[in-house]
Amino acid sequence: MSAVVTAAEEAVAAGRLPRRLGSWFVFEHHVRAMRAYRWTVITTAIGTPLAYLFAFGVGLGTLISGNVGPAGPSGQLTYLEFVAPALLATAGMLVASEEWMFGILLGFKWNPYFTGMHATPLSPRQIITGKFLHAGLRMLIVCVTYFVVMAAFGAVPSAWGVLTIACGLLCGYAFSPIAAYSASITDDKGQFAILNRVVLLPLSLFSGTLFPLSTLPIAVQWLGWISPLWHASELGRQFSYGPTEPIWVTALRVLYLLALAVLGWALTVRVATRRLTR
Amino acid sequence: MTSPAPVIVATDLVKRYGDFTAVDGISFEVAPGESFGLLGPNGAGKSTTMRMLGAVSTRTSGGLQILGLDPDRNGPDIRARLGVVPQQDNLDTELRVRDNIVVYGRYFGLKHRELGPKADALLEFAQLTDKAKAKVDELSGGMKRRLTIARALVNDPRILLLDEPTTGLDPQARHILWDRLFRLKEQGTTLVLTTHYMDEAEQLADRLVVVDKGAIMAEGAPASLIREHSSREVLEVRFGSDRNVEVAERIRGAGERVEVLPDRILIYAEDGERELVQLTDAGFAPITSLVRRASLEDVFLRLTGRTLIE
């Protein structure tokens, strides 16, 4: 046997580590890039929950007493307790959507570093997975801060309430099919502004976030049923002050959100692969 | 002694996008340490070929072996040993200059502790040491290209692919870049570059293929291509755009060959000065005249009937 290493053997050896850890390397890149906009991350993470919980929970909350749906085992439920898990889920949705829209198109078009990544051993799947991990980190920062502020406002009756953080992440990931759409955009014609105004904003109003979905006319309730935000909000409520529904309903919500998250990731990988290997 | 195995073998390589054939059955080989060029106008299929060589774009048909591996199967492994300088800079503008190299090195699985000194050495090579902490957007076009080249060298690539490395740069920036690439060539790095500048091809390529409409028109060393397809010298004369065609008709027999371009007439000859004297003796008075050595531009014109830059 020859001890000489051929170019092919050398290449296969060099590709081994990136094949295994590529997604992590992409994640590292995004984290390093966050230094450039760290103050935006920190101030929005702290400022948003403070403003919203104060306005809705404390301000609006003084006007609302009751009619906020079923209370948990304690039999008591304030408006602040009702609205807080939904606000956290909404925050998860918003920060994730920002990544699913601008974060994805940035890498493909405005500053096409995804192309640069693909010139290295990284695969399109790893590039997208790394981006998803980074979006997860951004959601985690926002949701954890939200939870801490919620707890400080006395809006979390149950110790299980800490799981609202996971609900916020799940909510954000459930919106990841948007990333697949963004990855398919070649001409930037303000699609994101439309998406924000026509889909995300109305969805946050009709998803049983600020009032129970059941108070809406049945004709528009279906909007909530398909909305990941409604399921994530209700899920958060189960942990924060529930349970208020049968366990199988809760399980279905988790499955629905997980399915959307996996679908979004798989579709994005597919679109990205087609785009990068064209 | 057998010659070393080629690092790139392309056989009848084809790439189609729907009905459009971007690369139409090209074949070539590149030996290790060689500097190989693809010369052709915009839209000739050079960038598409480069993307296939870079193991990112999948071929429609034909054979392709890079470092002895098939890019369809071993894409990541091949890319682990390549350095790629794309036509369009894709540096991350959210990162500082030095971080762009470090982050890129991580993609190849290099460790943080080896990447620090490496990034510094590469910045030195790219003459960007004092810009290490600068934002990418603060760099000039030439500096960005040099950073992209430095970044592409972070994994000590076996092959460096350069797609139109100096397009859009001013003459001084081009010369700095050529100097850097020449050093790499001296160190034995295999270079594959595309260009539509014939001076660049002459400067950097040991051997090149002339590509037009997705096909190879000629192959050889720059000097031998010129010898084969052109006379030694070229006399360029201008009579004004409205008179060039008319004058060309009357001097058809001059030199070895006459080509008319919209703005000038080219007369191919072994001795350009003598042709000019004969022309003026015959009563022709060009507005301007220039005698120069024949270049790859002339080879391209001869082979395709068109100029490289249109």
Question: In summary, what is this structure?
Answer:
Chain A is mostly helical and 278 residues long.
How would the blueprint of this fold be written?
The complex is a heterodimer of chains A (278) and B (310).
Chain A: H1 7-33, H2 38-59, H3 79-110, H4 113-118, H5 124-152, H6 164-174, H7 177-183, H8 191-205, H9 218-226, H10 228-240, H11 247-276
Chain B: E1 8-17, E2 20-30, E3 35-39, H1 46-53, E4 61-66, H2 71-80, E5 82-85, H3 97-107, H4 112-125, H5 141-152, E6 159-163, H6 171-186, E7 190-195, H7 198-204, E8 207-212, E9 215-220, H8 222-229, E10 233-238, H9 244-250, E11 257-260, E12 265-269, H10 272-281, E13 288-293, H11 296-304
Parallel strand pairs in B: 3-7, 3-8, 5-6, 6-7
Antiparallel strand pairs in B: 1-2, 1-4, 8-9, 10-12, 10-13, 11-12
Can you describe this structure?
The complex is a heterodimer of chains A (278) and B (310). Chain A has helices spanning 7-33, 38-59, 79-110, 113-118, 124-152, 164-174, 177-183, 191-205, 218-226, 228-240, 247-276. Chain A is mainly α and 278 residues long. In chain A, helix 3 (79-110) runs antiparallel to helix 5 (124-152) and helix 3 packs parallel to helix 6 (164-174). Chain B has 310 residues and is α/β, with parallel strands linked by helices. Chain B has two domains: 8-221, Rossmann fold; 231-293, Alpha-Beta Plaits, CATH 3.30.70. Chain B has helices at residues 46-53, 71-80, 97-107, 112-125, 141-152, 171-186, 198-204, 222-229, 244-250, 272-281, 296-304, and strands at 8-17, 20-30, 35-39, 61-66, 82-85, 159-163, 190-195, 207-212, 215-220, 233-238, 257-260, 265-269, 288-293. In chain B, the strands form three sheets. In chain B, strands 5-6-7-3-8-9 form a six-stranded mixed β-sheet, sandwiched between helices. A four-stranded antiparallel β-sheet of chain B has the order 11-12-10-13, covered by helices on one side. Chain B has a three-stranded antiparallel β-sheet with strand order 2-1-4, covered by helices on one side. The longest helix of chain B is centred in the middle third of the chain and has 16 residues, at 171-186. The chains are: A mainly alpha (278), B alpha/beta (310). The A-B interface holds A 6-8, 10-12, 14-19, 21-22, 25-26, 28-29, 32-33, 36-37, 111-113, 115-123, 276-278 and B 5, 7, 17, 32, 54, 56-58, 67-69, 74-82, 84, 86, 88, 90-95, 99, 103-104, 106-109, 155, 158.
